[in-house]
Amino acid sequence: MAADPVQEFFSIGEVCSLTDLKPHVLRYWESQFRFLNPAKNRSGNRVYQRREIELIMLVKHLLYAEKYTIEGARQRIELYRRTGELRPAAHEALAVEMVRELKAELEQILRILDGERAPPRGG
């Protein structure tokens, strides 16, 4: 039995779903971080590669978890790039963010099981 092909390109909607970010946030980050420059398909829609999603998660981690400013995150990423640590840092940020999001989802499930009403999605 052949393995399922690995998806190489992702739409902005898929990236938003994967990263839990809004499209306007991604577009803003693209204007602030020159390495976030997704290709466009024939229709003119953004198409992201896996590497770009990892970098988006690194930016998200630096801004939201580590509380860097945009300029600070830019400098930190440039340091990772110069020292050859960009890929490992992006992988680690992706793992940390996934664990953080899973933990939040599990806590919500536990609250529901304890009889609390779930807060509305996105709020």
Account of the 3D structure:
62% of the residues lie in helices and 7% in strands. With 123 residues, it is mainly alpha-helical. It has a single domain (9-113), classed as Multidrug-efflux Transporter Regulator, Chain: A, Domain 2 (Orthogonal Bundle), CATH 1.10.1660. Strand 2 and strand 3 (46-49) form a beta hairpin.
Write the layout of secondary structure elements.
Layout: E1 9-11, H1 12-19, H2 23-32, E2 39-40, E3 46-49, H3 50-65, H4 70-83, H5 86-113
Antiparallel strand pairs: 1-3, 2-3
Helix pairs in contact: 3-4, 3-5
Question: In short, what is this structure?
Answer:
The model has no long low-confidence stretch (mean pLDDT 88). This protein starts with 8 loop residues before the first strand and ends in a 10-residue tail after the last helix.
